[in-house]
């Protein structure tokens, strides 16, 4: 009952005009923050978010994740544009990261944990190459196999070749047939078709020869 009342109070607060500062963000937490409007989230200043405890925004809509990531990027990116230096602080907001930023993190070998990876935007993850996925996860790459049925992992598999999927070396299956594999399969089919046609023609010839022999025997 108390928790319900607290949630109602927070929800009412989030509908009120005004900005969300560090104290408010720490009090609200990530789950309830996701119920705020996009307009309300845009009032958060990078300096306030930087001083806030990490927020779990996994229940936010993709648009809200994108907004919060943009603010977090401004808060934690250093002057040289390096995200990896503050990876731990920004990791909880990476669900809104575009592919280009994920590629930068991959190049920095951040060893992303599997929970963070599975909460990334699938639309952006499918843009990553097999090598980039390998570099992004680092020592956590084998955990992909344990989460093979996850929608994000399946989305990546479906949009990459079987060769790319196998190249990860963790036992994942699936993927699109590569052009070479497709041509090989097509060749095998054609060979099988030609072989079947040849066998059919051979049977026809044998039948005709048999008919001719019977006809000759009857004449004699």
From TrEMBL:
Per its UniProt record, what PANTHER family does this chain match?
A: MESOTHELIN, STEREOCILIN RELATED
Q: What is its main location?
A: membrane
Localized where?
Membrane
As recorded in Swiss-Prot or TrEMBL, the protein's gene is named: LOC103186874
Q: Which GO terms describe its cellular component?
A: cell surface; membrane
Which Pfam families does the record associate with it?
Mesothelin (PF06060)
Q: What is this protein called?
A: Mesothelin-like protein
Q: Which GO terms describe its biological process?
A: cell-matrix adhesion
The cross-references to InterPro entries, in alphabetical order and at most eight, read: Mesothelin, Stereocilin-rel
Entry keyword set? Cell adhesion, Glycoprotein, Membrane, Signal
Q: Which family does it belong to?
A: Belongs to the mesothelin family.
Q: What is the lineage of its organism?
A: Eukaryota, Metazoa, Chordata, Craniata, Vertebrata
């Amino acid at each position: 009952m108390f928790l319900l009342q607290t949630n109602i109070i927070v929800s009412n607060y989030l509908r009120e005009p005004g900005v969300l500062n560090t104290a408010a963000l720490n009090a609200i937490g990530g789950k309830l923050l996701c119920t705020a409007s996009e307009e309300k989230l845009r009032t958060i200043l990078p300096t306030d978010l930087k001083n806030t405890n990490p927020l779990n925004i996994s229940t936010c809509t993709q648009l809200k994740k994108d907004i919060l990531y943009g603010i977090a990027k401004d808060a934690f990116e250093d002057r040289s544009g390096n995200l990896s230096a503050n990876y731990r602080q920004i990791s909880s907001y990476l669900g809104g990261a575009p592919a280009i930023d994920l590629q930068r993190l991959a190049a920095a070998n951040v060893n992303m944990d599997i929970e963070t990876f599975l909460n990334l935007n699938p639309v952006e993850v499918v843009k990553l190459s097999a090598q980039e996925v390998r570099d992004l996860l680092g020592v956590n790459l084998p955990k992909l196999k344990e989460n093979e049925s996850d929608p994000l992992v399946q989305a990546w598999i479906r949009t990459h070749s079987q060769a790319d999927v196998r190249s990860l070396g963790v036992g994942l299956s699936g993927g699109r047939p590569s052009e070479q594999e497709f041509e090989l399969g097509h060749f095998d089919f054609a060979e099988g078709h030609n072989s079947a046609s040849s066998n059919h023609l051979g049977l026809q010839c044998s039948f005709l020869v048999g008919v001719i022999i019977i006809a000759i025997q009857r004449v004699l």
